[in-house]
């Protein structure tokens, strides 16, 4: 029944679909904990499934959570924030049943096992504006830790259909897909540079070591972007993660 239309952040508006953008910092923001204005849900409104995804590497024993003003997001209390689940490629995911068609302000927080705060996503809060007065089934939100890539997909009913179907407007490539292509191009370039460095220099030379480091970084980046596409449903899943119990690996 629903059909999703993708409108990446930064593209001109064509309808009543939402954009995602950083919220302006208000005077009540302190130590990274933002303020939020809640709206009363419309009578008879149906909950919307909001699905968050963000790539990030945590230290062992830490995990990500989504925090915000609504009760489901902990009302800005870090210990009560919505926990996220780790997936292969260091992508974290969480879902929220949201029954307000207005504005949702939130932020990502790094928590320790005892639910204390280890860190916050840098920059201002994220603000998700949902259309009011129009049917909406689900929202898929993709964020990046540095705020450089923000994508929102909406699933809305389409007359004459009986099953959900995701599609994009013609001629639109989404920010996430563009970044994925860039990551793959970077990986291809790193492979060529690594082969050239290995053939022209000693394996222990600074040039070869730099090429190896770039290849490792490009591989990890490309894998993270592909896993993010998978988490958002644009790629078929390859199976369950073996080590996906809400714990990441690597350094913050």
Identify the notable features of this structure and list them briefly.
2 domains; disordered N terminus; 2 helices; 6-stranded antiparallel β-sheet; Immunoglobulin-like; 252 residues; 13 strands
How many beta strands in the DSSP annotation? 13
CATH architectural label of the largest domain: Sandwich
What is the average per-residue confidence, as pLDDT, rounded to a whole number? 68
- Count of alpha/pi helices: 2
What's the CATH class of the largest domain, please? Mainly Beta
Q: Which sequence of strands runs across the widest sheet? A: 6-7-3-11-12-1-13
- For the CA atoms, what is the radius of gyration? 20 Å
| CATH third-level topology of the largest domain | Immunoglobulin-like
Q: Based on helices, strands and strand pairing, what is the structural class?
A: alpha+beta
GO molecular function: starch binding
Protein name: CBM20 domain-containing protein
Organism: Auxenochlorella protothecoides (Green microalga)
Written account of the structure:
By secondary structure, the protein is α+β, with helices and mostly antiparallel strands. The protein has 2 domains: 2-166, Immunoglobulin-like; 175-231. Helix content is 21%, strand content 27%. The protein is built from 2 helices and 13 strands. It has helices at 175-200, 206-231, and strands at residues 2-6, 20-22, 48-55, 62-68, 82-83, 85-87, 91-98, 103-112, 117-120, 126-129, 138-142, 151-157, 165-166. One of its GO terms (molecular function) is starch binding. InterPro entries: Carb-bd-like_fold, CBM20, Ig-like_fold.
């Amino acid at each position: 029944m629903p059909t999703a239309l993708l409108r990446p952040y930064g593209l001109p508006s064509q309808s009543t679909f939402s954009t995602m953008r950083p919220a302006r910092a208000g005077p009540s923001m302190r130590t990274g904990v933002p303020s939020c204005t809640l709206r009363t849900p419309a009578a008879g409104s149906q909950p919307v499934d909001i699905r968050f995804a963000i790539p990030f590497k945590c230290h062992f024993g830490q995990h990500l959570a989504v925090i915000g003003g609504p009760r489901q997001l902990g009302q800005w209390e870090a210990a009560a924030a919505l926990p996220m689940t780790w997936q292969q490629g260091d992508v974290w995911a969480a879902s929220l049943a949201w029954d307000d068609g207005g504005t949702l302000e939130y932020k990502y927080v790094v928590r320790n096992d005892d639910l204390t705060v280890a860190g916050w996503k840098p920059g201002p809060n994220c603000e998700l504006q949902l259309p009011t007065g129009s049917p909406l089934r689900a929202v898929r939100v993709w964020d990046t830790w540095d705020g450089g890539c923000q994508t929102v997909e909406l699933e809305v009913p389409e007359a004459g259909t009986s099953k959900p179907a995701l599609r994009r407007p013609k001629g639109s490539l989404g920010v996430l897909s563009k970044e994925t292509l860039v990551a793959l191009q970077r990986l291809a370039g790193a492979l060529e540079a690594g082969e050239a460095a290995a053939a022209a220099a000693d394996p222990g030379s600074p040039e070869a070591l730099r090429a190896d480091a770039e290849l490792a970084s490009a591989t990890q980046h490309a894998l993270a972007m592909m896993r993010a596409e998978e988490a958002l449903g644009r790629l078929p899943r390859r199976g369950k993660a073996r080590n996906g119990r809400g714990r990441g690996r690597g350094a913050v």
